[in-house]
Amino acid sequence: MINKDKCLELGLPEPKSYQSELSYCLSVMLSGVKLNTWQTRYIGIGHLHNHTSVLKKKGYQFEDPKAPSYCPEAKKILPRPVINAFMMPDQIALYWQEKAARKG
Rounded to an integer, what distance in angstroms lies between the CA atom of residue 51 and that of residue 98? Predict the structure, then answer.
């Protein structure tokens, strides 16, 4: 279960009651925010790499480089590289164009 208070603490969008972990990760990236493995674990999403894999298989375009990142639990940047998933502005625009085209 995604912890709403921890999301807000990190400046992430508030999760909706109907959102799955996968749809929340997608909505965060669509809002222009970067998600890293440490953040997702902190808010209650166990394995970001599983979600990014599913999103890629579904055809969503986003970036997911590995890099040292801020860990909210440790309150510092940890040296171990972890996934940093985000969408570039052109990828966000493409998503909305494709969604509009599917609606008709």
Answer: 21
- Number of neighbours of residue 48 by Cβ within 10 angstroms: 22
Q: What is the pLDDT of residues 4-32, one digit of tens each?
A: 999 999 999 999 999 999 999 999 999 99
How are strands ordered across the β-sheet holding 76-85?
35-36, 76-85, 66-71
In our burial notation (b when 16+ CB lie closer than 10 A, e otherwise), range 7-23 reads: beeeebeebeeeeebee
* Token pair for 47: 């394995």
Residue in the block written with tokens 């494709």:
98
Please, which residues bridge with residue 69 across strands? Answer: 78
Which of 71, 77, 9 is CA-nearest to residue 41? 71
